[in-house]
Design goal:
The protein is built from 19 helices and 7 strands. The protein is an alpha+beta fold. Strand 2 and strand 3 form a beta hairpin. Helix 5 crosses helix 9 and helix 14 runs antiparallel to helix 15. The longest helix is centred in the middle third of the chain and has 22 residues. The chain is flat, with a radius of gyration of 29 Å. The mean pLDDT is 91.
Length: 465
């Protein structure tokens, strides 16, 4: 004979969350310690905000109350995934404890509240809940949310000690990889259709086949081309297709994805990690990814937006619209800027503002340190900028790494003096990435494989620190 058992999981919360919802036969509610814990509340917890997740399961007569945890845990993790995705807060069993268990039933009816940081999320939550109820893909959505929550957890754990930096990037990549499985069939179908149309047109217009011969040759030749191209559907192309279907894909995002895939391969497949020096903050392990061009927040919001698009809700659109402005112009865009000599006659103010296709001195520095742009090309682009330099934070901070690198190849004495001036201004005002000492910039650039002898001499001569 079956019997109902109830497990109540509780934790304190130190963020602004007011919730009372019924989620997949789970009651999720917040309140004071006294409201949530009742007679089990101690004096220290009476006024503290608490969250409770109440789950009912059915047990056979031979199963004990503790056996019920095995039944309630999957739904608890699903609830954690939903809460983490809606709030970007960490929900795991590590900060949650089982406050009570009993045989019986509990009241499911909720008052329908979901407010986080003064934002009312109830309407979006209701939309999400209805989609889940009607979906044949529940387990897939739960998997997406759980992987995203894991990435969020690893990101949080790595915030101060960098211990999980590489693994965090890999976790967020797995989300895109998993999502592509829902788009690959359409991608293959589109590829086959395009191959067939292309082959048909060539055989008809150039080979001048017609009737049965045309159909037979189209079929056989199409299969031959498919055998060559279908295996070429790399993970990059799959992600591109998915983002295109979600109307997110741009040339700049494609450029980012190429680098993302490269970083993922480095972490996933391993490589020699020994380095003869590291930079601050010193890592607990040798890092697999030497430098990240984007904050982890970018990966978090990108994947959250891709999940949102797949589910069909609107939760991360504003954050994505804002953070996507950070995507660095692609290298072909910079090369075109260089080829067209757009830097000539461009005021420093407009250059820093990115009025020419968002190209700024920082973009020059980025591709220079990435070793895609040659130092001589960077010097040519930045020469008018250096000649017209004025002591502003934007002009200094956006260009400083490029200035340090090209200092070693500047032959014109006046231009060299201006480069040294920029470095000294950066040092005296802390207008540089590390905000401590210029020697940290030297260490960072040497770590990336640059010999910055000019900066080293300035430091050795005590002209700067």
């Amino acid at each position: 004979m079956k019997r109902n058992v109830v497990h109540k999981y509780t934790r304190t919360i130190d963020f602004n969350l007011v919730v009372d919802i019924q989620f997949l036969d789970i009651r999720i509610i917040t309140g004071s310690g006294l409201e949530i814990l009742g007679n089990y509340c101690d004096a220290d917890s009476i006024d503290k905000a608490h969250l409770a997740i109440i789950i009912q399961s059915q047990l056979d007569s031979f199963e004990s109350l503790s056996d019920g945890v095995a039944y309630s845990r999957p739904r608890l993790l699903i609830a954690f995934g939903m809460l983490s995705y809606f709030t970007q807060q960490i929900f795991t069993p590590f900060e949650t404890y089982q406050s009570s268990s009993y045989v019986g039933d509990f009241e499911l009816k909720a008052t329908d509240k979901f407010i986080y940081n003064d934002n009312d999320l109830l309407e979006t939550y209701k939309q999400f809940e209805n989609i889940i109820k009607e979906s044949n893909d529940k387990e897939f959505i739960y998997s997406l949310l759980d992987r995203w929550r894991k990435g969020l957890y690893m990101e949080s754990e790595s915030e101060n000690n960098t211990v999980y930096n590489d693994e965090t990037i890999l976790s967020y990549f797995h989300i895109l990889e998993l999502l592509t499985t829902k788009y690959t069939d359409n991608q293959k179908l589109e590829l086959k259709t395009n191959i067939n149309d292309f082959t048909y047109s060539i055989l008809r217009d150039t080979f001048l086949y017609d009737s049965n011969r045309l159909e037979e040759e189209t079929k056989s030749k199409s299969k031959l081309i498919e055998s060559l191209l279908l295996p070429e559907l790399s993970i990059s192309s799959k992600i591109f297709f998915m983002l295109k279907e979600q109307r997110m894909l741009t040339d700049r995002l494609k450029s980012f994805i190429y680098d993302f895939v490269k970083d993922r391969n480095t972490v996933a497949h391993g490589s020699q990690v020994y380095q003869d020096r590291v930079i601050f903050p010193v890592p607990p392990f040798f890092p697999l990814i030497k430098i990240q061009n984007y904050s982890v927040e970018f990966y978090r919001i990108l994947t959250a937006k891709a999940i949102e698009n797949y589910i069909g809700i609107n939760l991360y659109s504003n954050e994505w619209n804002e953070i996507s402005q950070m995507i660095i112009p692609s290298f072909p865009e910079l090369k075109q800027f260089y080829k067209d000599k757009k830097y000539i006659g461009l005021s420093n103010e407009n250059f820093c503002a990115g009025t020419e296709n968002d190209i700024t001195p920082y973009v020059v520095s980025h591709y220079l340190t990435s070793k895609k742009l040659k130092p001589k090309e960077a010097l040519e682009i930045l020469t008018p900028f250096i000649e017209n330099y004025s002591k502003t934070e934007d002009e200094t901070a956006l260009s400083i790494w490029a200035i340090i690198i090209i200092l070693d190849i500047v032959e014109n004495e006046e231009l060299r003096k201006k480069c040294v001036e920029i470095i000294k201004v950066a040092e005296s005002n802390n207008w540089h990435p590390n905000f401590f000492k210029m020697r940290d910039e030297m260490y960072s650039l040497e770590y990336l494989g640059f010999k910055v002898n000019g900066l080293r001499e300035l430091i050795k001569n005590e002209e700067i620190r």
